[in-house]
């Protein structure tokens, strides 16, 4: 199944590279960049889903430890167009190195889902992304979540979008559970939502799967 999922994306990314090398239009280049980023997001989603389907996370190549501040900057940069289109002010506070012994694709899909939720509900508002003392905080000034819905945000079927699947935060919660990270959500309708992910330690050694 992994081959069937990965191959079409590899073909698409290869085609994007060919087109990118043969176009001179800035508009086309930006469009290809968006396609490449979307394919990258889908790749990360597939890798995370396949990883979680393996008991104990066996068979995964962890690669080099991930420096979380660098990945945070990368994820925010990936969404610059959407952030600008929604007139959102984003503040990132993550200067101190923090290494996680976790596959980069797994960390990225976690960050993608949390940040994307904030972007989709914060038009014209602000998002603060902060990493300090093993705590990652993503806080927005968006619509917020009603109190009666808050206990269900990690349910597989929970979504605020008519066409949504509810898989985003459910996947994030499953990843956090797998690596013994703690995730907390606090929200108030009309004032915004704060998501906090707490890592066991700064070097990521306790967050690896035994």
Structural features, described:
There is one protein chain. The protein is built from 6 helices and 7 strands; from the N terminus they run ααβααββαββαββ. It has helices at residues 2-20, 26-53, 68-78, 80-85, 104-120, 167-178; strands at 66-67, 89-93, 99-100, 126-132, 135-140, 182-188, 192-198. The strands form 2 sheets. The protein has a 5-stranded mixed sheet with strand order 2-4-5-7-6, covered by helices on one side. A two-stranded antiparallel sheet has the order 1-3. A hairpin with a 2-residue loop joins strand 4 (126-132) and strand 5. The longest helix is centred in the N-terminal third of the chain and has 28 residues, at 26-53. It is globular.
Largest sheet: 5 strands, mixed
Helix content: 40-55%
CATH domain class of the largest domain:
Alpha Beta
Number of domains: 2
Descriptive tags:
210 residues, alpha+beta, Heat Shock Protein 90, 2 domains, 5-stranded mixed beta sheet, two-stranded antiparallel ribbon, 6 helices, 7 strands, disordered C terminus
